[in-house]
């Protein structure tokens, strides 16, 4: 009887520890807290690298080499006045920043970060990622539309138009790795790459298309058309201020984390273990490289006009993505 | 398609405008069908201020008409006064005026190229050009002690000399600048995203350019060979050989190329002027009494032809002073360029004339129906606008 009681107790303890561990994994590492820290860090990497490319210093004074600047900006915005336009649709305006923050955060749970198994993994989670990308743009559309400002409306229309052009090439370039690994799960694609080779070596065309599409998704130059500063102020973000803007900004940073994590996981082998180096380190190194690639690309171009972007995407990127799929079907690149 | 075009106001507060000015666009789809400019948002009453100050004080006022082409305005002002007084400027002062004017042209064009790059979202080029513009500003600081308002001109000559030690430094800096200008020409000609935004945008036919009174690089980018430095030489320009840069394509790209190549030409002019600068005094004495009379003075400012008109009544203050800044000459041409263009191209076309609205803004009260004109006093203005 006493023995049974002890095993039962042990069982409860064991279950409690696994549950606590799961909670810790979701909330702390590699979950919410870690991702937020990573978001701030990546914003710093992006700003600093972008500034160095432009022969500027970038953030310099808050923390070592200005590393705390994104956090300081975030806290400052939290304390600022939150102005809501009189004519705006207040309910949508309130929910947009939350949704914009939650979408990339949720999606990041699917990407394997600390080990080859992500927090949430199921067959078909790649489709879910494509879906959340679309939802993000719909959120952006609501953001601009609900604030009823002329600039915001222009920005949201441009964002939606832009999505219509890059969504299909992006979907196709995400299918490439899935075809190679014969799985629609990001975790499986990462596992496949650790057994075979990095997909960037066998599908370089897909990698290029995916990177360009991510630039458009992140609204980086040359595709920062929805927030073109000299044309429509801050585009769809124009009417957001204070806490709402702070959430939008961290949401944007998380999107950068997501973009670099996806480049890493789908094309650069994801989090792999090399000898004694833990997977998280290889993951971080690769994602930082991906962020730098994105910042470099945004530094060396001028902005396209919306019609040029639409025709360019349909005329060049879509055929390229299709050619990559055909090549995979022919047996090259798997 | 659309019988009733949409009206979009552009400005007076707009991120693409560095100074407040209003343009009312009529849009059909994405195309512009009509433009109505409305100037006067940045009126500073500077011509009236001229009438309230003495000729010497006005040198400093003329300097402050424009922050970027401050030397062009003082050159124009002092020339007008010198013509009134019948003064002959010493040859060395003439050469120094040329050197300062051309240095100013380089820094003004560099500033403009940066702004245009920013308008089309190419911030890296913007940062690069503005970094290299510092080279020229450093030369100014070395010569005059100031980076922007150099205060070099005075009636009858210039205020500071350029020593032989400075000449060596200037030449060294200019060699660096020349390399950079070549690099920028290369970037502008080869970078596909710039070409996409600049080729065949904001077309201004040569015929329209002349008829609408365009001036400066805007006119020369439409293939019209017109430059006050050649047509009506002032300072030492009649002694210095140089080419007038023109381009035939009439679009934004040719405006960029004209300015890039003018920077290169300016560097050549400065090298020549530094080499052939005669020795001697830099300033003559001014007679104490100012005679009655009228004079007009013309200068090729970085933005185009600048005209100053002076009417003197024999006192120590001008009776009337009029400044026609180049931007005013370019406004009708700008409206022509914008017609038929895309809405997304408005900022780049607008920036293409290198507008400087605060230099340009003048106003007058006219009743259109009765064609009656009048002047309001300060008290009347105050009563009208402050409900006193």
Can you put this structure into words, describing what you see?
The complex is a heterodimer of chains A (334) and B (388). Chain A is mainly α and 334 residues long. In chain A, 70% of the residues lie in helices and 0% in strands. Chain A has 13 helices and no strands. Chain A has helices spanning 2-27, 32-53, 69-78, 90-108, 125-147, 150-181, 186-195, 199-202, 204-217, 229-232, 242-267, 279-299, 306-329. Chain A starts with a helix and ends in a 5-residue tail after the last helix. In chain A, 46% of the residues are buried. The mean pLDDT of chain A is 86. Chain B is of the alpha+beta class and 388 residues long. Chain B folds into 2 domains: 6-42 and 328-386, Enolase-like, domain 1; 46-324, Cytochrome-c3 Hydrogenase, chain B (Orthogonal Bundle), CATH 1.10.645. Chain B contains 15 helices and 10 strands. Chain B has helices at residues 46-51, 55-63, 70-85, 91-119, 123-144, 164-190, 192-198, 206-211, 216-220, 228-231, 252-276, 326-338, 346-352, 357-360, 378-386; strands at 6-10, 22-28, 31-38, 153-154, 157-158, 292-301, 304-313, 318-324, 365-367, 372-374. A 3-stranded antiparallel sheet of chain B has the order 1-2-3, with helices on one face. In chain B, strands 6-7-8 form a 3-stranded antiparallel sheet. A two-stranded antiparallel ribbon of chain B has the order 4-5. In chain B, helix 4 (91-119) runs antiparallel to helix 11. The longest helix of chain B is centred in the N-terminal third of the chain and has 29 residues, at 91-119. The radius of gyration of chain B is 22 Å and the shape is globular. In chain B, 46% of the residues are buried. The model of chain B has no long low-confidence stretch (mean pLDDT 87).
Radius of gyration of chain B: 22 Å
Number of strands of chain A: 0
Mean pLDDT of chain A: 86
Shape of chain B: globular
Oligomeric organization of the protein chains? heterodimer
Average pLDDT of chain B, rounded to a whole number, is 87
Largest interface: A-B, 22 and 25 residues
Q: Distance between the terminal alpha carbons of chain A, to the nearest Å?
A: 59 Å
The biggest beta sheet of chain A is recorded as: none
Please identify the top-level CATH class of the largest domain in chain B.
Mainly Alpha
Main beta sheet strand tally, sense and closure of chain B: 3 strands, antiparallel
Computed CA radius of gyration of chain A, to the nearest angstrom: 21 Å
| Contiguous runs where pLDDT drops below 50 for at least 5 residues of chain A | none
Strand content of chain A: under 5%
User: How much helix, percentage-wise, in residues of chain B?
Assistant: 40-55%
Write the H/E string of chain B, N to C. Answer: EEEHHHHHEEHHHHHHEEEHHHEEH
């Amino acid at each position: 009887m006493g023995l049974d009681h002890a095993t039962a107790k042990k069982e409860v303890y064991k279950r409690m520890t696994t549950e606590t561990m799961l909670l810790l994994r979701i909330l702390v590492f590699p979950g919410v807290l870690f991702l937020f820290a990573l978001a701030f860090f990546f914003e710093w990497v992006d700003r600093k690298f972008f500034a160095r490319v432009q022969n500027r210093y970038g953030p310099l004074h808050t923390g070592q080499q200005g590393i705390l600047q994104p956090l300081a900006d975030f806290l400052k915005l939290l304390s600022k006045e939150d102005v809501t336009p009189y004519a705006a649709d207040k309910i949508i305006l309130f929910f947009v920043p939350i949704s914009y923050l939650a979408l990339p955060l949720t999606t990041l749970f699917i990407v394997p970060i600390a080990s080859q198994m992500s927090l949430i993994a199921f067959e078909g989670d790649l489709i879910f990622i494509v879906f959340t990308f679309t939802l993000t743009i719909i959120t952006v559309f609501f953001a601009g539309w609900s604030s009823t400002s002329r600039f915001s409306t222009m920005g949201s229309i441009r964002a939606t138009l832009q999505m219509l052009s890059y969504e299909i090439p992006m979907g196709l370039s995400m299918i490439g790795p899935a075809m190679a690994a014969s799985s629609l799960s990001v975790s499986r694609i990462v596992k496949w790459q650790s057994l075979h080779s990095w997909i960037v070596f066998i599908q370089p065309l897909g990698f290029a298309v995916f990177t360009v599409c991510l630039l458009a998704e992140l609204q980086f130059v040359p595709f920062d058309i929805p927030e073109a500063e000299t044309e429509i102020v801050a585009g769809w973000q124009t009417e957001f201020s204070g806490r709402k803007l702070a959430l939008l900004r961290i949401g944007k940073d998380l999107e950068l984390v997501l973009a670099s994590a996806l480049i890493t996981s789908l094309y650069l082998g994801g989090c792999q273990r090399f000898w004694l180096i833990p997977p998280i380190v290889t993951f971080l190194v690769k994602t930082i490289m991906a962020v730098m690639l994105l910042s470099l690309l945004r530094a060396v171009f001028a902005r396209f006009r919306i019609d040029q972007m639409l025709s360019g995407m349909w005329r060049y990127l879509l055929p390229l993505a299709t050619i990559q799929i055909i090549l995979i079907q022919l047996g090259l690149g798997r | 398609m659309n019988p009733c075009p949409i009206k979009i106001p552009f400005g007076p507060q707009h991120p693409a405008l560095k100074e407040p000015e209003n343009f009312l666009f009529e849009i059909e789809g994405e195309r512009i069908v009509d433009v109505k400019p409305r100037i006067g948002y940045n009126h500073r009453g500077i011509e009236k201020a001229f009438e309230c100050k003495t000729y010497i004080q006005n040198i400093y006022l003329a300097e402050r008409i424009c922050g970027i082409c401050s030397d062009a305005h003082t050159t124009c002002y002092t020339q007008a006064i010198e013509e009134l007084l019948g003064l002959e400027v010493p040859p060395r002062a003439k050469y120094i005026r040329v050197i300062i004017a051309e240095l100013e042209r380089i820094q003004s064009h560099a500033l403009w190229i940066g702004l245009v790059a920013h308008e089309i979202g190419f911030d890296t080029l913007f940062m690069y050009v503005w970094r290299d513009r510092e080279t020229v500003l450093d030369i100014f600081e070395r010569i005059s002690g100031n980076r922007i308002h150099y205060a070099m001109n005075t009636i009858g000559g210039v205020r500071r000399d350029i020593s032989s030690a400075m000449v060596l430094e200037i030449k060294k800096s200019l060699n660096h600048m020349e390399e950079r200008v070549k690099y920028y020409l290369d970037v502008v000609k080869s970078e596909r995203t710039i070409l996409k935004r600049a080729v065949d945008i904001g077309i201004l036919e040569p015929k329209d350019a002349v008829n609408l009174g365009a001036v400066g690089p805007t006119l020369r980018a439409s293939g019209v060979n017109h430059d006050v430095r050649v047509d009506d030489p002032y300072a030492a320009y009649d002694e210095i050989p140089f080419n007038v840069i023109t381009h035939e394509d009439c679009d934004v790209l040719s405006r960029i190329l004209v300015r890039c190549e003018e920077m290169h030409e300016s560097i050549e002019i400065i090298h020549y002027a530094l080499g052939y600068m005669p020795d001697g005094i830099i300033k003559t004495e001014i007679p104490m009494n100012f005679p009655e009379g009228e004079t007009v003075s013309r200068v090729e400012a970085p933005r185009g032809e600048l005209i100053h008109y002076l009417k003197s009544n024999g006192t120590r203050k001008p009776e009337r002073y009029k400044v026609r800044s180049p931007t005013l000459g370019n406004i009708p041409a700008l409206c022509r360029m914008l017609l038929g263009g895309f809405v997304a191209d408005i900022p780049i076309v607008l920036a293409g004339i290198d507008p400087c609205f605060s230099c340009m803004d003048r106003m007058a009260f006219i009743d259109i129906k009765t064609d009656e004109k009048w002047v309001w006093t300060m008290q009347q203005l105050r009563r009208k606008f402050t409900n006193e």
